[in-house]
Amino acid sequence: MVIRDELYDSGIAQRRTMFGDAGADAQVDNTTPLNDKLQDFVTRNCFGDIWQRPGLSVADRSKVTFAMLIATGKSHEMRIHAEGALANGVTAEELREIAIHSLLYCGIPSAVEAHRALAEVFDTLGIELEESDSND
Question: What is the mean pLDDT of residues 18-31?
Answer without folding.
Answer: 89
